[in-house]
Amino acid sequence: MTPAILIYGNCQGEELMLTGRYLPSFQGRVAFKWIPSHKVSAADWDTLYGPDFMRDVVTVWEQVEAGPVSPHRAALHRLLPAGFPVVKFPPLSALFLWPFSGADPRIAADPDRYPWPDSVGAVLSTEAGDDDTLFDRYMTMTAERMPDLERRLRMDAARWRATDALADFAMGPWVEQNFRTTKLFHTSGHITAAATVVLFKNLLRLTHGLNLAALAQEAHALLRHHRGQDFECVPIHPLVARNLGLTWYDLDARYRWHGHEWTFRQYILHYIRWAPYLD
Amino acid sequence: MPVSVPDLLPLIAGTLGIPPAEVTEASDMTNTRKWDSLRQVMLMTELETSYGIELTDEEMTEATSVAKIRAVLKGHGIG
Predict the structure, then answer these.
(1) Which residue in B10, B17, B57 is closest to A117 by CB distance?
(2) Which of A1, A16, A249, B12 has a Cα at 20 to 30 A from A185?
(3) A122–B41 C-beta distance less than 8 A
(4) What burial class does residue A130 get, using C-beta atoms within 10 Å of its C-beta: 0-12 exposed, 13-18 middle, 19+ buried?
(5) If DSSP codes are grouped into helix, strand and coil, which group holds residue B25?
(6) ipTM computed for the complex
């Protein structure tokens, strides 16, 4: 029986699982499983994640969260015998790069179309106008409403410190050191390969008994051109990039949105109009 | 443009991405779907934008329920 690492976490946990499954040297040596912390239901603990599911699990990679222990996390902990190997890792998120993340009532009714809210886009969704007019309005309103981004960064950094303190290793300082020179986030909650690799290597380093740490270099090499969680890439506002000094930013870049590649302008216009994109 | 205080519940729902009916005066981080630490920050910055105020770090940390948000807004002369 191949020993398995169980990852408990949000979609970043899924990305780690897929990364582990992708690497050739891990084949037959260690398997990866994932419990989606943001989707698991109470019934799942009886039907999906019972003793059979846990039989081959030798280590748990547990994504921590701030606040009280949720019922699902408690259910996970009940599955683990005392002293069971657990490596705790922090979630990665970055609201400061998308400072207009806020209220958009359309998301509740249609949560999957554009799940990353833009409050200015929501305001403009009630206005009429052609593409040029709407985009100009968006750029004007966002320039007027642009918050203090360094303050927003400090707010995110405070959240990172809180979750880093619960984990076995910190990621916040690394994010702060690198976000200006390397793209680390595709959305406020989805990470690029650069962030995935660092997260993955830290987890390997702290996973004992499976001789995985030596494989970290392979992970680094093979994931060099991997794109991470890129199925939805929300473009960063040019003013945000300029104000924060994002050296990797390309004003003319195209961003993947499922089967499409859009510029910042195209994405914003689709978002304002809540335009379908699957046909 | 500042929104009126009666619009607070829809604003919270819109930021959390849940139907307005799911947010009541009794809602807080522990009993409301999707109201996690990430959305808490998003909600606080949305309050700042919508009401034209700047919250302190302490207010952002403590305003984890509808009742506490109303109290914070009142402290800023709103409501």
Answers:
(1) B17
(2) B12
(3) no
(4) exposed
(5) coil
(6) 0.85
A145 Cβ under 8 Å from any chain B Cβ: yes
Please write the tens of the pLDDT for every residue from B14-33.
999 999 999 999 999 989 99
Q: What CATH number corresponds to the domain at position A200? A: 3.40.50
Domain span including residue A54 = 4-91+194-222
pLDDT tens, residue by residue, A241-279: 999 999 999 999 999 999 999 999 999 999 999 999 986
| A9 touches B at CB < 8 Å | no
Would you say B51 and B75 are in contact if contact means Cβ atoms under 8 Å apart? Answer: no
> Is A62 in a helix, a strand, or coil?
strand
CB contact under 8 Å between B14 and A66, yes or no, is no
- Is the Cβ–Cβ distance between A93 and A159 less than 8 Å? yes
Total of domains in chain A: 1
Judged by CB atoms within 8 Å, which residues 66-95 of A form the interface with B?
66-68, 93, 95
**A34 three-class SS:** strand
Q: Which residues of B touch A158 (CB under 8 A)?
A: 57
Tell me the C-alpha distance between A4 and A210, whole Å.
Answer: 10
Tell me if the domain spanning B5-75 has CATH number 1.10.10.10: no
Q: Is A147–B14 a contact, with Cβ atoms under 8 angstroms apart? A: no
**pTM, rounded to two decimals:** 0.93
Is A8 inside a domain boundary? yes
> Cα distance from B21 to chain A (closest Cα, Å)?
11
Residue that is written with structure tokens 């009666």 in the block: B6
User: Which residues in chain A are closer than 8 Å to B69, comparing Cβ atoms?
Assistant: none
Torsion of CA B49, A94, B61, B32, to 10 degrees: 90
Q: How many helices (H) and strands (E) does chain A have?
A: 13, 6
Instruction: Quote the Cα angle for A232-A238-A242, to 5°.
Output: 125
Residues A194, A225: Cα–Cα separation, whole Å: 9
Does residue B62 sit in helix, strand or coil? helix
Answer yes or no: do A67 and B20 touch at CB < 8 A: no
CB within 8 Å: B48 and A99: no
Domain ranges of chain B: 5-75
